[in-house]
Design goal:
The chain has a domain at 90-107 and 223-418: Rossmann fold (3-Layer(aba) Sandwich). The protein is α/β, with parallel strands linked by helices. 45% of the residues lie in helices and 16% in strands. The chain contains 19 helices and 16 strands. Strand 6, helix 6 (142-151) and strand 7 (157-164) form a beta-alpha-beta unit. The strands form 4 sheets. It has a 6-stranded mixed sheet, with helices on both faces. It has a 5-stranded parallel sheet with strand order 9-6-7-8-16, sandwiched between helices.
Length: 457
C-alpha cells in the first residue's frame, strides 16, 4: 500500500513513513492510493469474527508490506488487553436508538481504541530505534490523555501534549496531568483548541524543526487513527445484522470520516449524521456548501469546540474529483479569506452521504435529563448531541449513536442535568488523590518550540 498527499498525488510514501510523519510535507493529509471494497461474500466471511480479529483484518488492508498480518494480530490483541470489556466496545438498545459504547479503555474515551494500537505500532515499526522520537499532539481533552496512556514510560519516546488552558473538563485535564512519567510533558496553551492545533501543524510544516527533533504525531490527522476507528463501524453492522444510520459527535471530523471510509469499503449503511454544538461550522457547510470560520465559543461539549476540522480536507479531496489543485485552492481561500465555497456538485455528493445537526448547550442538558428520566441511562454531553441529532434526522432506518466518552469525564455538566453525581469508574478510581503537573505557555509558536528544545536537550 502506498500513500500520497491531498495536495500532491505525485508524493509516494509507505505506511511506515506516513505513520511516523503524521502530516504530509506539503501540509496536506495522507490518503491511500487505493481502498479495498469488500464484496457481499467477503463481508459475510467477516461477520462472526471477534473484535480483535476483525480489527486485524480491516487494518491489514492499509499497512502491508510494512506489517504482516500475524504481527498485527499480536499487536492488536495486546492493545486491547486492558479494556474493561473483552469485546472492546458494547452495543446497547436504548429506546429507539442503539448506543455504541466506545469508552471502555483506560482513559474512558473512544480515542483509546486507536491510541492503544498506535502505541504498539511505534514499537513494532521500529520508529524510535535509531533516534528518540518526540511526539507533539494537540488535544481538546481526550486525545492527549489517550496518547499519554498509550505512550508513557517509554525510554525512546517523549510526548508533548498541548491543551487549551481552562477549556477542558477537570477530569479530562487530570487524567493527563497526573501521570508522573518523565517522558510526558503537558502544556496548557492560553488559547483554544484551534490555536493548539495550529501550532502543531506549523511545527510539522517546518521541515527543519521537524527533522531536528525527530517529530511525530498522533492526532486524528494521522492515518493510523482513522483505520483503527473504521473497525467499530464494521463490528456494529455485523452485530446488528442490518443497515443503520450512524450519528457521531463531531469536532475534527476524524471519527465520522472513518465511517465514510467504511462505506467506501463496501459496508452497507444509511446516513452518517454529523452532530455539532454551537461551533457549527460543519453543520453549516454540509447544509449550505459554505465553510466559513467564526469565533470559537466555549460550550458544555469542549471536545467539539473547534472551527477548523482538519480531517474534512480528506473528504474535500474525494468530492473535488480527487483534484489536488482544487483542494489547494480551497485551503488557500480558507487561509486568506477565512472561508471557501463548494461547487454544487460537491455539495450534492456530501448530502447524499451525510446529514448534519447542531445541538446547543440548553438542548444538550435537556437531552441528558430526558434520557436519564426515560431510560435510566446517563449520557456524556458529547454523546447527547449525537442523540439529539439522531432525533432530528428522519428516515426509515434505525440509528446507532457513537458514545464517545464516559459521563464521569463531564460529571459537572451531568450533575447540572440530572442533579446527581456520576460514580467513579474503576479505571480512574485513584485520580482525585493524584497531583497535577503542567506548564502554562502563551499562544506562541516560537515559545512552544523553545520549550520542546529545552526539554529534549
Amino acid at each position: 500500500m502506498r500513500y500520497f498527499s491531498t495536495r500532491d498525488k505525485k508524493l509516494n510514501f509507505s505506511f511506515r513513513e506516513i505513520f511516523s510523519r503524521g502530516l504530509a510535507p506539503d501540509g496536506g493529509l495522507f490518503i491511500p492510493s487505493e481502498i479495498k471494497k469488500y464484496s457481499d461474500s467477503e463481508l459475510k466471511s467477516l461477520q462472526d469474527l471477534s473484535y480483535t480479529d476483525l480489527a486485524t483484518e480491516i487494518i491489514s488492508n492499509f499497512c502491508s508490506p510494512d506489517l504482516d498480518k500475524q504481527k498485527l494480530k499480536i499487536l492488536v490483541s495486546k492493545a486491547y488487553n486492558n479494556f474493561a470489556t473483552k469485546e472492546v466496545v458494547k452495543i446497547k438498545k436504548v429506546g429507539d436508538i442503539y448506543l455504541l459504547e466506545l469508552y471502555h479503555g483506560p482513559t474512558l474515551a473512544f480515542k483509546d481504541i486507536a491510541m492503544q494500537v498506535i502505541g504498539n505500532l511505534y514499537d513494532e515499526l521500529n520508529i524510535a530505534d535509531k533516534k528518540k522520537v518526540n511526539i507533539v499532539v494537540a488535544t481538546s481533552g481526550d486525545t492527549g490523555s489517550a496518547a499519554i496512556s498509550a505512550l508513557n514510560d517509554r525510554n525512546n519516546i517523549n510526548v508533548f501534549v498541548l491543551h487549551p488552558h481552562n477549556k477542558i473538563s477537570k477530569t479530562q485535564r487530570k487524567i493527563m496531568t497526573t501521570i508522573g512519567s518523565t517522558n510526558i510533558y503537558n502544556i496548557a496553551i492560553k488559547g483554544n483548541f484551534d490555536d493548539c492545533q495550529k501550532i502543531v501543524k506549523e511545527m510539522f510544516s517546518d521541515n527543519r524543526f521537524r527533522e531536528k527533533i525527530n517529530m511525530s504525531g498522533v492526532n486524528s490527522i494521522n492515518w493510523a487513527r482513522i483505520i483503527c476507528q473504521i473497525v467499530y463501524y464494521f463490528y456494529t453492522y455485523f452485530k446488528l445484522s442490518k443497515k443503520t444510520n450512524f450519528a457521531v459527535p463531531t469536532g475534527n471530523f476524524g471519527d465520522i470520516y472513518a465511517g465514510y471510509v467504511a462505506k467506501k469499503m463496501g459496508l452497507p449503511m444509511g446516513k452518517l449524521i454529523v452532530a455539532t454544538n454551537q461551533n457549527d461550522i460543519l453543520t453549516r457547510t454540509i447544509n449550505s456548501g459554505e465553510y466559513k470560520l467564526s469565533e470559537v465559543r466555549s460550550t458544555l461539549t469542549p471536545s467539539m469546540d473547534i472551527q477548523i476540522s482538519s480531517n474534512f480536507e480528506r473528504l474535500l479531496f474525494d468530492i473535488s474529483e480527487r483534484s489536488e489543485k482544487k483542494v489547494i485552492n480551497l485551503m488557500n481561500d480558507l487561509q486568506n479569506q477565512g472561508s471557501f465555497s463548494l461547487e454544487e456538485k460537491a455539495v450534492n455528493i456530501i448530502k447524499d452521504i451525510f446529514d448534519a445537526e447542531a445541538i446547543d448547550d440548553d438542548e444538550t442538558i435537556r437531552i441528558i435529563r430526558d434520557f436519564f428520566n426515560n431510560f435510566g441511562f446517563i449520557l456524556d454531553p458529547h454523546t447527547a448531541t449525537a442523540v439529539g441529532a439522531s432525533y432530528k434526522v428522519k428516515n426509515s432506518l434505525s440509528t446507532v449513536v457513537l458514545g464517545t466518552a464516559h459521563p464521569y469525564k463531564f460529571a459537572d455538566t451531568v450533575k447540572i442535568a440530572i442533579n446527581r453525581d456520576v460514580s467513579t469508574p474503576n479505571q480512574i478510581a485513584e485520580l482525585p488523590k493524584k497531583k497535577e503537573k503542567f506548564d502554562i505557555l502563551d499562544n506562541n509558536l516560537q515559545k512552544v518550540k523553545n520549550y520542546i528544545l529545552e526539554k529534549i536537550q
